[in-house]
Design goal:
CATH topology of the largest domain: ATP Synthase, domain 1
Mean pLDDT: 91
Number of domains: 2
Strand content: over 45%
Number of strands: 7
Oligomer: single chain
């Protein structure tokens, strides 16, 4: 049997996954990357996007994330997401609410850097909305 990767996906609301997986596609802020067993250590922030992982049997699962951190270490991969919603739970109304919240973040930003960061999140959310 192929070697497996220990994977935890946690949001403030709940633990979405804790167990062994074959691989995980991570939407890193510097670009998407795939984590497999024996991956080099990495610590990165997350951009809004979709985490895709394959369980022990190869079944694929998709989870929308908005912000957070991913840490790859010798023990495995831990993702701490600000928001994490399994794609089967993500409907157009919920995504529309995320977009509305982010539009408010852009409007309420106190400085250019905060506004630019919120605008980048908003752009990613619009891309996800278009993909649905």
């Amino acid at each position: 049997m192929a070697e497996l990767l220990k994977f935890e996906l946690v949001s403030p609301e709940r633990l979405l996954r804790s167990g062994d997986v074959q691989e995980v596609l991570v939407p890193g802020s510097e670009g998407d990357f795939v984590v497999m067993p024996k991956h080099a250590p990495v610590l990165t922030t997350l951009k809004p996007g979709v985490i895709v992982f394959k369980d022990e049997e190869g079944a694929e699962f998709k989870v929308f994330v908005r912000g957070g951190f991913a840490e790859v270490a010798s023990e495995g991969l831990i993702i701490l997401a600000e928001t994490a919603i399994p794609m089967e739970e993500l409907d157009k109304e919920r995504l529309s609410q995320e977009i509305k919240n982010t539009e408010e973040d852009v409007a309420d930003a106190k400085d250019d850097e905060t506004r630019a960061t919120a605008q980048q999140v908003l752009d990613h959310l619009h891309q996800l909305q278009a993909a649905l």
